[in-house]
Amino acid sequence: MRPFLCLPVIAALLAGCTSFPQLDSATSLEAKRAPYPKLIPAEGLLAKRGEGRLTPESGEALLARAARLRARAAILRRIQAVDEETRLRIAGRLRQLGG
User: Global pTM?
Assistant: First the structure.
């Protein structure tokens, strides 16, 4: 029983010994030589964001869309996508596989 308790600890220690890829080689020389981006005050960005996109009518439109999607899903559930012969063949193969 004790060897099984030590196994996770050993696995964690071995994972810590992994060598990491050289991330410096993933960055091109152009990117390394590029100037640091200019920082701008956040107030200017926040002022440009404007009003939210949701309106009181948005809720009604969203509920209507959800109802249309539910109706569409109900229609799709009634459609038989696989013929009976194929369905039986799949079920038989699943039984053979122990499913």
Answer: 0.35
